[in-house]
Amino acid sequence: MTPRNKLISVIVLGLALFLIANWVEAALSKNEGEYIKLGKLSFYTSIDTGINESKNLSKPIFLYFRSETCYWCKKFEEEALSDKMVVDILKKNFVIVSIDTFKQKNVALNLNVRSTPYMIFFTKDGEEISRIPGYLPTDEFLIKLNEILAKSKLNQY
Asked: Which domain range does residue 127 map to?
């Protein structure tokens, strides 16, 4: 192969990789819509919508950070977010929002979230109540959830 042909091959390969990378980035950044179903719950996918809904309903926010490629996120969703008691508590007492850390990088970075799964609870006024970094089994998450719920109710009065 001549040097000229090698150069042309490298340029074509580089262009192909560039186009593929742009296509993947565009596919990842598409908005999923206003909701996403995880476990047995429907989550808002916009933090702004969640904040507005939280103020309108006077409920605290459960902000759940995840990614499509996260094994522990999927496990948490299959177990905890499908558990009847957890689902009932979250539906009744919180506005629930899911943030995809790949598609919504700025939200994750602004809240200093660097791993998934990651959960942050806020009052309806936007004050942070608690953070849960990493996976929790259902029974441990339920205990934490009840503690956070009690704490958020105390902060309301």
From this structure: 35-155
